[in-house]
Batch of 2 targets.
Target 1
Amino acid sequence: MPKIINGKEISAQIKEELKEKVAEMKKAGISVCLAVIQVGDDPASSVYVGNKKKACAYIGITSLSYELPEETTQEELLALIGELNKRKDVNGILVQLPVPEHISEDAVIRAIAPEKDVDGFHPQSVGALCIGQQGFVSCTPAGIIQLLKRSGIEIAGKECVIIGRSNIVGKPMALLLLRENGTVTVTHSRTKDLKEVTKRADILVAAVGKPRMITREYVKEGAVVIDVGIHRNENNKLCGDVDYDDVAPVCSAITPVPGGVGPMTIAMLMNNCVESAALRQ
Ligand code: NAD
């Protein structure tokens, strides 16, 4: 049977390390503060925001919460971001996405000062990642690198195939694997003979957004399989982009859903907040 890559355990370990770091920073007079903005009351967003605030409280990060009504205008939201950009006590600004349709997501992302862009979505952060300069990295792919490293999985020289080319997962994942000296292929909805390409992978990252699409026909024997997808199956249970029961017997390591990639995203967000405060010093 494969090694199960335990994201719950690894994220808990990262949070403990951050808690210690924040306590040390506090002793040196440095505090860490994240501003979290939610527009409207989408239930899934409320759960994500709640989890982020809980993680902040655990680690010792102050969180400022802005719950704005659905009717908030783009101008009002950008004005709030502008104020938070100026505040010296705020290290990170996060606007929970998606925002209501009358607000431009792009305008919101661009409004956040790059030095407070703890989600790593600002074009400057993405550009910095692309050319190997310092900047915040999108939390989910950054978490996947931690999962691999902390599980002792070598990336350098490996064939890495990513299924999906989204701005928040697929593309930054490709850049991060490249930075770790992997040989990277990005596949997408127009890729021909997808199975043939994915079967080359030593490390396969599925971020395709289709429940249990990836069966063992897509996987080389002994590959490491990282499942980014989050879905509810017909019994309302969580499942991923990978058909876990089918793939697990043929791979060497795999992330489960839940308890794999999911918990890493918040841990890396917390890491970015702490880094932002440390860098400002
Ligand atoms: P997305 O919908 O933005 O992107 C999906 C990508 O898959 C696209 O680039 C598309 O080209 C590709 N694709 C679609 N159908 C395909 C096919 N048949 N063959 C090959 N490629 C195909 O999704 P996303 O935002 O990148 O998220 C992907 C999944 O990861 C979703 O299930 C999402 O819920 C999940 N997710 C999880 C976390 C986490 O914290 N674990 C974070 C972000 C996203």
Note: The mean pLDDT is 97.
Target 2
Amino acid sequence: MKKEHHLQDYESVQANFSWETIAKELDGLPHKKGLNIAYETVDRHAKGKHKNTVAIRFIRKDNSFQEFTYSKLKIQTSKFANVLQHLGIKKGDRVFSLAGRIPELYITALGALKYTAVFCPLFSVFGPEPILQRISKGKASVLVTTSALFEKKVKQLQEQLPFLRFILLTDIDEHTSTKILSFSKLMDQANEEFSIPQTNLEDAALLHFTSGTTGMPKGVLHVHQAVLTHYITGKYVLDFHPGDIFWCTADPGWVTGTSYGIISPLVNGVTSIVDEEEFNAIRWYSILEEHKVNIWYTAPTAIRRLMRMDINPKQAYDLENLRLILSVGEPLQAEEVIWGEKTFGMPILDNWWQTETGGIMIANYATMQVKPGSMGKPLPGVEVAIATIDGGKLKLITEPNIEGHLVLKKGFPSMFRTYLHEEDRYKKCFIGDWYLSGDLAKIDGDGYFWFIGRADDIIKTSGHMVGPFEVESTLMRHVDVLEAAVIGKPEPTIGELVKAFIVLKPGIEPNITVKMDIMGFARKEMGPAVAPKEIEFIESIPKTRSGKVLRRLLKARELGLPEGDLSTLETS
Ligand code: ATP
Ligand code: MG
């Protein structure tokens, strides 16, 4: 099914872009003074042509599903806003969720936004300690969770959470105390009509904790006007059209699962698929087929797992509705982009952003020629550059192909407004109008951005700066290598030596012959200065639950240092 892409001519869209014009494509509140995410995503569609369109289709573990049209979602979220009112919650108070991908989580998110409370999702697999840390840091007033998660993880924390006024359990029929209440009972008693209060562009809306890849997760605060970024990236990058079925595989516990699992598809009036179950190749391909998914947004870890399977999805499944595949979260290797081309007949479109930027900032667009391995070009309306930072001074690099800090100019709506309780750290992220992303990259002569690595991970060896990503990408091209993670190990004569941790493909013996072969390959491909001097075979690479390589953990273990915050470490 061919559809005219929204972004036809990148250069002219970029040249003529203004956020004020984009704001006019949304409604603003009926009283025209302000902007509310829940209004733009739900209520305006519920009274318009999308009222009977399915907003979210929840696929349960047993494959049955439940649908919420925009008008049904309006009623449910208005009810939840009334529940918050009934409980005496105030504007700006924080409403947390701790649940798997169940409807109540989405109703809580949108209902809280409607009420002008701040919504903060927690990943349901967190243990009690990370939950305690985040709820304390965010001073939650309300927590919505399930009985099982409550019993297992929250019950024992209650004394340490005196500010937490209410815990709403999604699966009990009666309130059990004045504090522990039944979500469904409150909802049953709530009115279906709710008038959205004045919401200003700068009113706090969302609190997200980062992935904790480089250290202790930070609490990132976003405001209601961030919805403009969710809207326009939905249009230009995800290329939403009326009738589209979209599937974002991320959990709302991470920013992608909220910005793109909830807000972006809904503000664009399309149907969003939510699967309650975890990754499973057969299940995923079946969902793409059965639910006629048009646009699929996923992550490199999932793509790699699919690549390892002995399944040819194009032969085994009817995927003719699939129009776009996109990826975020970690660098997408050129081979993975090409695998997409071979396997699905379309390249996988990589894009870059962070919890702090609230939405996609650099992307490969459907209409643009893809250079495999590149993150693409900046979102129209966002200025992105490469800079050197010296003695606190920032200088933009204008020549192509020079590595430097990836910086973004302030002034787009979804830029974070603070790190909760870490104002100094927040301020340190800016030099003048430029936000320092903490990543290194370069721009080629055609204006495409290429990821080098996280500034924290860069290895300084014999006067060279080596990004772990380029070494890992090369190692992964060796026939025996499944995955690789590279760190710098302090070494007096050369500063740091490049050390690679490698997971071999199933059936390959971790012996000296394989090691020498990989080392030889790396030297030939990268030269002796950059190729790893040490290789260690390991069973698996430590990653965050959102799929990011935890190089800091490999380094700490290598050097016998404290392991640091492990709240987001994937353990199974
Ligand atoms: P923390 O800030 O707590 O260390 P984190 O940076 O991993 O965790 P996120 O905000 O979830 O938390 O991730 C954003 C980071 O992920 C980016 O700064 C970048 O390093 C990496 N990233 C995201 N998308 C891409 C991509 N397409 N290519 C390369 N790196 C990416
Ligand atoms: Mg980060």
Note: The longest helix spans residues 70-86.
